[in-house]
Amino acid sequence: MCTIEKEIEKYLSEIQNNLVGSNKAKKNIISEIEGFVYDYAEVKGVKDISDIYSHFGTPEEMAQTYLSQSDPKKIAKAVRIKKAVIVGIIVALLMFAFIIIFEATSANNEHNGFENYEKITEETHYILE
Q1: Last residue of a domain, one of 50, 70, 90
Q2: Residue 53 belongs to what domain range?
Q3: Per residue in 111-124, pLDDT tens?
Q4: Do residue 54 and residue 115 come from a single domain?
């Protein structure tokens, strides 16, 4: 892959990072933009990414263009889903950490209890002799 192709891929990746919506919607948008960008680069013989920026705009501007054409309800739904997933992951991690701490504490208490049992047994055996 030549340098301009790498730069175009980075450009497309930055656009995708600035998009809001489902992964499927983002991939569809990027696929469309990718076609435009590569066609332009081929026809014009683009050698530098600045030509892409001059013609299409910054990644942020490109993302904003597509977002302004999107349905606000779909964008809001995608944001809610993303937030719910993040909250779910955080809750799951906290529960996992709590379980690990609880189990470690229980194992430590059981171990200490077993040591006390051994001492009592030895003392009882000594007394009985």
Answers
A1: 70
A2: 1-70
A3: 555 555 555 555 55
A4: no
